[in-house]
Design goal:
mainly alpha; two-stranded antiparallel ribbon; 3 helices; elongated
Length: about 110
């Protein structure tokens, strides 16, 4: 819902974020402390390439070039996170967790 979006702190006028609390409510916690959206909750994503900007002034071009470097660092971090997530998913898929679930349920 668009109502979940808040202005990004220090961001551009059109920069929006979802608060941490809202994101945690909509996602699943992971053992490493991160939260991941279930694939069914993701409607789409955008990759905006700032390396091929439209005509602009020198300051805007400098800002875009800085964002290119930041985008590359974020892309690398996302790739590493996805690799770890795939490894964790494969690990847990190979385990029989029924006894752990039963132990948890008995505590309730």
């Amino acid at each position: 819902s668009p109502l979940a979006l808040q202005p990004a702190p220090g961001g551009r006028d059109n920069a929006k974020v979802v608060t941490k609390a809202t994101f945690q409510d909509l996602s699943l916690p992971h053992e490493d402390g991160n939260f991941f959206l279930h694939p069914s909750a993701i409607l789409g994503s955008f990759l905006i390439r700032t390396s091929n900007p439209l005509e602009c002034d020198a300051q805007s071009l400098e800002e875009a070039e800085s964002e290119v470097l930041s985008d590359e660092a974020i892309r690398i971090e996302i790739d590493q996170t996805l690799t770890r997530l795939a490894a964790n998913t494969a690990y847990f898929a190979s385990k029989d967790t029924s006894s752990a679930v039963n132990t948890f349920l008995k505590r309730k």
